[in-house]
Amino acid sequence: MVSVAVLGSSGGIGQPLSLLLKLDPRVSSLRLYDLKMSHGIATDLSHMDSNSICEGFNTDEIALALKGAQIVVIPAGVPRKPGMSRDDLFKINAKIIKSLALQIAEHAPEARVLVISNPVNSLVPIVYETLKSVGKFEPGKVMGITTLDIIRSHTFLVDVLGRKAYSVEKLRSAVTVVGGHSGETIVPIFTDQKFYRRLRDRELYDAYVHRVQFGGDEVVKAKDGSGSATLSMAWAGYSFVKQLLNSLHLETGEDVHPIPTFVYLPGLPGGKELQQKLGTSVEFFAAPVKLSKGIVVEVEHDWVDKLNDAEKKLIAKCLPILDKNIKKGLAFSQQTKL
User: Fold this and answer.
1) Catalytic residues, which ones?
2) Residue 80 has pLDDT above 70, yes or no
3) Domain 2-145 is of which CATH architecture?
């Protein structure tokens, strides 16, 4: 049984994510933290007839929220609104994430840390740099959640090809997403190239890629100023946590793979090989990884050898943007004191 802490549990992502986690029979303790409402949300969820104990913790109770947590999920921060750039989002959320990382280092140094808050490309490096500065960073335990891009790649492929002809379940193994978690750093790659050829032959490939890369804008526009993707992001976050829970419950020596996540490449087996194959010094990248006991134990890189020419061009466009995003996060963490 596993103790999970959700930092930012009262927000648009935090509430549905907490609901999904409360439903999972493998979660024994669900600990909800936020600046307000967390006690009420925890009480509400605690009335559900599922196995986990659910407790809420407010501003000055973060140490209690984190105590004993094996998985810490961070959806904390403000959502993106119309007219708000990811740079605007960064300035607000970077301070929040650094503060939470320091708390995790002190009160839950052994936890797996899953970053949902945006912009992931810059915030995961902040968590890395903050934990490293206090000697608490373990490469396999810090992961940026890019799962929503993968989920969109499946959904949008079915939209293009037709739901009468295909189900989402059948196409989940046809495409995945690597790179980062914003705009052109989001790179869909086809694990089944026949679907790429079908889109290309029907001149639908470019539109498909654009929709996967900028699908978040659809939600921001449709919500007309009231927020960004929350329900789908909660589902994506839970989908990733579920993989970690699967991994934690396997016998020693077994692993779960491949599941893309945004990780620190130089610190992980296979990470440097991936950098070499991509021809880059970029240190953070979302790639398929192997999980063992809820920890990333290897970054997969064989997929690079199977890229088609269009995907290689997308990767080439992604890398310099991603590098800039990463350096921005590292610079903030190094220069900002809380």
Assistant:
1) 181
2) no
3) 3-Layer(aba) Sandwich (3.40)
